[in-house]
Structure formats: C-alpha cells, structure tokens
Design a protein that fits this description.
The protein has helices spanning about 40-45, 95, 105-115, 170-180, 195-205, 220-225, 235-245, 260-270, 295-300, 310-325, 330, 340-350, and strands at about 1-5, 15, 25-35, 55, 60-70, 80-85, 125, 130-135, 140-145, 150, 185-190, 210-215, 230-235, 250-255, 270-280, 300-305, 335-340, 355-360. It is an alpha/beta fold and about 375 residues long. Keywords: Metal-binding, Oxidoreductase, Zinc.
Length: about 375
C-alpha cells in the first residue's frame, strides 16, 4: 500500500510503498477513504510536539472494514466506518471509569511511543524496520484500529466528509460537553479553524445564544456565520462587541481553539464573572499561558481543559447529530488533496490557507 511517511522532523512527507498491516486480536483493518488534515499533525512535523520518527501521521479517518482481527464480532467486512483520534484501550483506570479521553494506554503507548497496546507498531517498511503510528497512522491506504474505536457510519452519510467526525467534530463535541453548556447560554469561540467551526455548530445545536466567532481572517468569520455563528468579529473589536451583546458582563463560556498564549488570555478576558473558559488548542511543548490569580479567585472563573470526547459514549451521539443534519461534516470540508499531495496539504495548513477543514482523499470504500 501507499503511505505518507515523515522520515524526520522538518522534512516533507514522502509517499512510500509499504506492506499492508494486519490486525491482531481485538483490532480492525480499515481501508481508508479519507483522512483529515489536523494542526496537531503539523505540530509533529515541525517538531513542536515530540513523537518518534519515522512515522505515519493522520488520526482522523473514515473508510470501510477490510478485515477483522480475532475476537471482533460486532462488525462486518465492507461496512463503512469512522474512527476517533483517541483510541481507548477499554481496560485502564480511566477507561473503566468512563473517562476514555484520559486513557492511560493511549497516552503512554501511542502518543509517546507510536505503538498499539501490545507495545508494537502495525506499520513496517519492506525491510522490516518499524514505522511509528500517530493514532492509527491514517495517511495510508490501510490502517489498523482497535475495535473499541470503530463506529459504523449511518446510512446516507458521505464517506469522505465523515472523516472529520474523528477529530475536528469529535474534539468540538468534547469541548462543549466539558463546558456543561446549557441552552440559552452565551458563547464565544476564539479561532475558527476546523475545531472552532465544529464548536460553533455544536454550540448552536445545544441551544447557545449568542454564538460569537472571533478570528483574524474575514473568510473564516464568514464561514463561521454560515455554520451557525450569530455574530463574528475581529479580535480588535470583539471585546467591546461581546460586552455590548451581554449587557456589559461577558459570555458564559469562551472556547479557545488555537493553543497560543495570546488567544488563551483573550478568551479568558471575554468571560463574565463566574464564567467558564475551555481551552482546546494544542500548543508546542513547554508553552505556558499565565493567569492572574486574584481575578481567577475573586471572579470565580473556571478553566476547563478539554482534549477530546469519550469515544464509546460520545461518538454515537455525535453520529446521530450528523445523521439528523443538525451538524454538517461536509459543510466544514473546504479543501481536498490526493495522498500524493499530503505534504502540500500541511504546507497550506501552516500558511493559514485552509479556511475550514482539509481532507486527504484515498478513495478506499467508495
């Protein structure tokens, strides 16, 4: 099969022919239809997030079941599926508590070492040397995924567009759930890329009003309005505009979806007293955002970190929202690239040229 390989940090992704992986017990082989282009992968490419190389990135996939490992009975070959970037082991302390977004094995095995939960990768070169897997290593024609992270796609949903349910919309859903958002609460979304646009959609679905989008690019603000933002502002006008919209108080919930200290502080400063700020964006390692302790204490502010949703509990609910047309995965997809242009896709993302969400199209399962 073909795979996009990152040989070393800072180098371009290169297409290689590698052996098709085989699923082990409790795993599924997916023929990949599409893989979303996420900023977290870009952090790895740039060396801002540590990850072993050579590796195959890509953690946001849709496709069809190509083979089932021993013990997997609830799925069938040929079934259209989607997978989330968090792959729960189902057995650790946090998974057993229903907190799969904190899965110990996912972080210690996959995110630190690039392997699955028997301690080995499923991807190898023809000479037998290993290729490490970022989640399932979705920038390839086939990917092995734990069965705990495979979800059948509802009938009628476009397979390629469904890929972004696995991270952009999955992360957004987790953020909104972490916030405990209630109908009628006011919301601001700072940075409206793929995840930010997902938060806009899901916040509206949860009944928030107003939903204020904040970004530096006019085309992203326009996109946010088409997906449910009731108001959209540049940063320099947003603070006063939010005060005007909320009777001078600020929003109930502010989401930060970029992972930079200045946007972190900006989102925090949009809150009313007693409000909640949910940072979602991943920052380069070591980056800190300082907080004024007295304001945090006196004004009873809450900062609630959110990495993603809980796959087995939340992905079925997210799929129902998409099936009902309450949120639209396809509405976020603005750019498509073939696998041969995977590196170009991340270049474009790095330049800020992707308005919504880009996907790398591999075609598996059409």
């Amino acid at each position: 099969m073909r795979a996009a390989v990152l040989e070393r940090v800072g180098e371009p992704l290169r297409i290689e022919e590698v052996p098709i992986p085989e699923p082990k017990a409790g795993e599924v082989l997916v023929r990949v239809a599409a893989c979303g282009v996420c900023h977290t992968d870009l952090h790895v490419i740039k060396g801002e997030v540590a990850f072993p190389t050579p590796c195959v990135l890509g953690h946001e996939i849709s496709g069809t079941v190509a083979a089932l490992g021993p013990g997997v009975e609830a799925l069938r070959v040929g079934e259209k599926v989607v997978a989330s970037f968090i792959m729960p082991c189902g057995q650790c302390y946090y998974c057993l508590r229903g907190e799969e977004d904190l899965c110990e094995r996912f972080f210690s095995y996959n995110r630190l070492r690039g392997v699955l939960y028997d301690g080995s990768t499923r991807l190898y070169r023809k000479d037998g040397s290993p290729l490490w897997m970022y989640s399932m290593g979705g920038l390839a024609e086939y990917a092995v995924v734990p069965a705990t992270d495979i979800f059948p796609l509802p009938e009628g949903m476009a397979l390629e567009e469904a890929a972004i349910l696995g991270c952009a919309l999955f992360t957004a859903y987790g953020a909104v759930k972490t916030a405990g958002l209630e109908g009628g609460e006011s919301v601001a979304v700072v940075a409206t890329g793929g995840v930010g646009l997902g938060i806009v959609q899901i916040a509206r679905a949860f009944g928030a009003y107003p939903v204020v989008a904040v970004d530096v690019r006019p085309e992203k603000l326009e996109k946010a309005k088409t997906l449910g933002a009731t108001h959209a502002f540049f940063p320099q006008e947003a603070t006063q505009a939010v005060r005007d919209l909320t009777g001078g108080r600020g929003v109930d919930v502010a989401f930060e979806a970029l992972g930079k200290p200045d946007t972190f502080h900006f989102a925090l400063n949009l809150l009313r007293d007693g409000g909640r700020m949910v940072p979602v964006g991943i920052a380069p390692q070591g980056v800190e955002a300082r907080v004024e302790i007295t304001r945090l204490v006196r004004r009873k502010l809450k900062i609630l970190g959110s990495y993603g949703a809980r796959p087995r509990r939340d992905m079925p609910a997210l799929l129902k929202l998409a099936q009902a047309g309450i949120i639209g995965a396809g509405a976020e997809v603005t750019d498509r690239f073939p696998l041969e242009e995977a590196d170009l896709a991340y270049q474009r993302l790095n330049e800020g040229a992707i308005v919504g969400r880009a996907v790398v199209v591999l075609g598996g399962g059409k």
